[in-house]
Write a structure and sequence with these properties.
Blueprint lengths: L15 H10 L27
Length: 52
């Protein structure tokens, strides 16, 4: 699987509330963990709410 090029997040206006939101939901130093080769997962009914 190819990793897509990440796009920068732009929240407007860049006030203290939006900057805090961005820091909480997308930390600047976050790196995705290396996935395992195989998962033990069964998904049944993966429609709109199938994974909820």
């Amino acid at each position: 699987m190819n990793d897509p090029v990440p796009r920068p997040i732009e929240l407007q206006p860049a006030d203290v509330h939006n900057l805090a939101l961005e820091a909480n939901v997308h930390p600047p130093d976050w790196t995705n963990p290396t996935p395992q080769e195989r998962y033990n997962l069964v998904v049944i009914g993966a429609g709109t709410a199938g994974l909820v």
